[in-house]
Backbone:
């Protein structure tokens, strides 16, 4: 897959994406526990919101619910943000269905507060955040993505591709209501087209990626419209990594023009 309009995969073999899909160093995902310990030992100060109680949604990634990003959400609340959950419980359904839950949360929070909402999204949650910024530019104040494949929605490791195929099989057998045939059909075309679309002009947008990400190709996280920051982190550990939190704090207090820098 390359940047452009969404095209379904022709066959399961095509979807596996070999050999490119085994390129991310998945063994480095074992660092997540050590990264959490480092965060507990030295947490960065939370960013100060532009005004007290500024609303923010923290969007979890694939196969994860709001509890997966609870530490990050609580950290933002400590800084004075009105950080809300999205309503996602496990994030295992098709992108179109899970995005609808997050979209409803965004509209509700914007209506309730009367203020544009900052979106912080991890992995697929960052894809959702980008899609919502494209759909609702007046409702979104700023966008920060963490390890999100924004220029190639399927720039992911073979292990995740196999997982989604198994989940789709369980759904077809009637044992679960998870992902369906998303890679091979049009059910999520609109989601992927919005992810691949240009971000609204003037939107403060930071994409944080790790060159040692074991799940998502860090190249796919380099959105041309974003201020791209690279860190040294596992993929799963990005939501609880001191260097990533420092980069988030910088992103939410900075209005720098797009460019590349390194943090952590």
Residues:
């Amino acid at each position: 897959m390359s940047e452009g309009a969404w095209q379904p995969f022709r066959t399961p073999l095509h979807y596996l994406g070999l050999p490119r899909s085994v390129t991310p160093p998945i063994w480095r995902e074992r660092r997540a526990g050590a990264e959490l310990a480092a965060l507990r030992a030295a947490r960065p100060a939370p960013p100060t919101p532009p005004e007290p109680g500024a609303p923010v949604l923290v969007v979890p990634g694939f196969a994860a619910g709001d509890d997966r990003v609870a530490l990050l959400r609580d950290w933002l609340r400590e800084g004075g943000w009105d950080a809300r959950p999205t309503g996602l419980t496990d994030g295992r359904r098709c992108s179109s269905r899970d995005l609808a839950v997050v979209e409803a949360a965004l509209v509700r929070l914007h209506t309730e507060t009367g203020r544009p909402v900052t979106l912080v999204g991890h992995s697929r949650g960052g894809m959702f955040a980008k899609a919502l910024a494209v759909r609702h530019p007046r409702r979104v104040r700023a966008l920060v993505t963490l390890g999100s494949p924004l220029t190639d929605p399927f720039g992911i490791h073979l292990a995740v591709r196999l997982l989604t195929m198994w989940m789709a099989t369980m759904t077809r057998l009637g044992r679960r209501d998870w992902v369906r045939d998303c890679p091979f059909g049009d059910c999520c075309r609109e989601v992927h087209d919005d992810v691949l679309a240009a971000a609204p002009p003037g939107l403060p947008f930071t994409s944080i990626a790790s060159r040692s990400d074991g799940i998502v190709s860090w190249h796919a996280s380099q959105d041309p419209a974003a201020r791209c920051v690279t860190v040294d982190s596992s993929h799963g550990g990005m939501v609880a990594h001191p260097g990533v939190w420092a980069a988030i704090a910088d992103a939410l207090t900075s209005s720098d023009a797009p460019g590349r820098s390194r943090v952590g």
